[in-house]
Each structure stands twice: as C-alpha cells, then as structure tokens.
Design brief:
Layout lengths: L2 H9 L6 H8 L3 E5 L4 E3 L7 E7 L1 E7 L5 E8 L3 E2 L2 H6 L6 E4 L3 E7 H10 L1 H27 L2 H11 L9 H7 L4 H14 L1
Antiparallel strand pairs: 1-8, 2-7, 3-6, 3-8, 4-5, 4-7
Length: about 190
Amino acid sequence: MSVISLLENIRRYTSLTADEEEQFCAMFSIKSLKRKEALLPAGSICHHEYYVNSGCLRTYFLDSGGIEHNLYFATEDWWISDLYSRTHSAPSFVNIVAVEDSELYQFSHIDLEEFMRKTPALERFFRLSYQQSLVSQHLRSLQLLSMSGEERYIHFREQYPHLINRIPQKHIATFIGLTPQFFNTIHAKVLRTE
C-alpha cells in the first residue's frame, strides 16, 4: 500500500487537482502501532483522522461490567477516528486498538478542517464517506434487531470475508451481538454446512 491507495480512496467520491493532492499528502504523518497497542484510549480526546495504510484496528466500548463491545473494524484503505470526540473536543467513550501491527496516515483535525474550507472537493469526500458510514451503522443496528444470531454471522462472513481470519472470533462475536459461547456454536454449525 502507498500514498497512491490513499488518493484512489478519495477519487472514489471526488477529484482533487494535482496541486490539491500534493498539499493533502503533505499534511499527514505516519503513525505505527504494534498489535494490541492503543491508538485512542477511552477518556482521551481524539485530535486526528486516520487512514489505514496497513494492518487492522478495532473500535470498542467497555461497559460497566467490563465487557467489550466491538463497534467498528478498519483494515487497509479504511478510515478510523472517534468522530464524536474529535467534533466536540470531548473525552472519547471508546477505545481504538490495533488488532495487528499497523501503519496509519495521521491527519490533524485542525489542519484537515482548514484544508477542507479551502478545498470543497475534499469536504465532499468526507461528507460522502461519513454518509456511507452512517448508512452502514444504521443497517447494522437494524440487523441486530431483526436477524437471528446465525443470520448475523452469515451476513458478516459474506460482507467482510477478508476479516474472518484477521480478527479473533471473540471480537467478531461482540460485533454481531453474540456471547463468545453462542458464537462458537453458530460458527461450528455454519462451518459444517459449507
């Protein structure tokens, strides 16, 4: 992966001039994380937007009983941040942690906001990206309410086949709203039918 993949990611929704692309690429710094290293611990304030150049990360919430609930995964060519914390300069409710050794392109929120003011095409990119993310979260909420555990697991496997062998099963389980024990039963059943 390289800066070319970052620019191709943006070109899916909009076009920047060659000069704007150059300015945009000059804005990021590289952040490397080891497996299980925190990018954003709960309680801290998020000041950056991150593009995943390599690796895998997860966003999770820790409830009052100490149980983790995975909310989001990000692999190569995906963006990750805590939009709530970043937008409101408020402590994050979530943790963002590397599932694998990862390399990220880190964009300062302040620099990014200023660049978007001068570059409507980039603002369009982030607006459309956030819209797509909101739609995905909305559909996920509906699936948690309307699908059985087995249906949610089958859907996850179909929607994200590249994540199945990269993310521990216990994290997939909480992402689709199952206990690890029930997930193991469903996982075994689905594998038998394949």
